[in-house]
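re: ur question from earlier - yeah i can do the single chain one, its not a big deal. heres the input i used so u can compare w yours
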Amino acid sequence: MPVELTIRANTEPMERFLAGMIRRTKNPRGALEIIAETGLASIQRNFEVGGRPGWRALAEATLKRKRRRGKILIQEKRLLGGIHYKLLSVFAALFFP
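and the output i got, formated as tokens:
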């Protein structure tokens, strides 16, 4: 005697969810901007605290020369102030021009 089994599934909620995901990924600009700003803030924080984990110690002669001008790596702010980000179609790029 054959057995017949019928399964019905309401896929409408999942279809709505997936349609929303597709719609949101067509324009990822908002998410990319958050990621880029977070990356930029993290790099700036690394400069402020001397690396995470800390950067390798500098030679005593280098320290003597640089101590006169302020915090190392932030003295002239050219490197720290020169880091930017640019949003492209599907990714964000952090760069130093």
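The longest strand covers residues 84-87. not sure if urs matches, ping me
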